[in-house]
Amino acid sequence: MIAKITQGSNFKGVINYVLNREEAEIIEAIGIRYNNKSAAINSFEIQSKLNSIAKPVAHISLNFSSKDREKLTTSKMREIAHDYLGKMGYSNTQVLIVRHSDREHPHIHMILNRIDFDGKRISDQNERIRNVKICKELSLKHSLYIANGKENVKRHRLREPDKIKYEIYDSIKSVVSRCSNWTEFELKLRLSGITVEFKMKSGTLFPQGVRFAKDGYVFNGSKIDRSFSYTKLNAYLTHNRAQKRTTATPTVARQIVRSSTTRTTRRSAILDNINRMFDNRAYGSPSTKKDKDRDDEDEDSPTHYAMRR
Q1: Domain coverage including residue 215
Q2: Which member of 12, 172, 201, 264 has the greatest number of CB atoms within 10 A?
């Protein structure tokens, strides 16, 4: 289960959006008259005037996996909605809960008044953080399917640069488990048109950051996914190498990355340095906490990267 929260100033707009659908089913209304849209809008607007704020409207959609469709009866969704609202601090205000069936995944829309029955503004402090935590808690409580967030993304609906970002994510996810060093990893990514850039520690050939590029777009590894930072990918490859129990470096890889040009010679030196560090098993993770912290920070810094094409 995931929840999307938006705020606004116009109850009429959000109510029309939620109810102007043939499949819209009102499953609960608290503190409002809902015999028609105008009555519901009027109810919300009257209460919002008890305490004037710029955005009295809260619109929350609860979205569930299609794998949970059979268990998500109307009463079950109502129960989950009440649990969510209580934990988020919306138990003392007007709420309109509407179920939609226009998508392949079950979901409900909740329209709430951010001015409660006592005329007090409902705080949204740390709302995004609390939202994520509560969704996880309720997913466990109600035995809902928990997926990697990126599994739920509809790839065919994406536009660039997000489309490219997810193509890189899928490629890395696919090949990293089959690689035991950066050479193999880079070569497999090249087959998908992806190149790798390393950020070097100042004045050395020791990498401390990584980026991935495709079709003119470049992304820090950690911005594609937190598990794709240089430190974490490097540790993963080192683990694979230990499991494989081999010290052989692919001859083809050596031939591809070596060249007589100055630029390629530098890349070759970087590659040799990386593989030598692998062989010495001195490079699974930063040697100090300071180095580890620097890894995550420096991926965003604009200092030089070494492009490996």
Answers
A1: 156-308
A2: 172
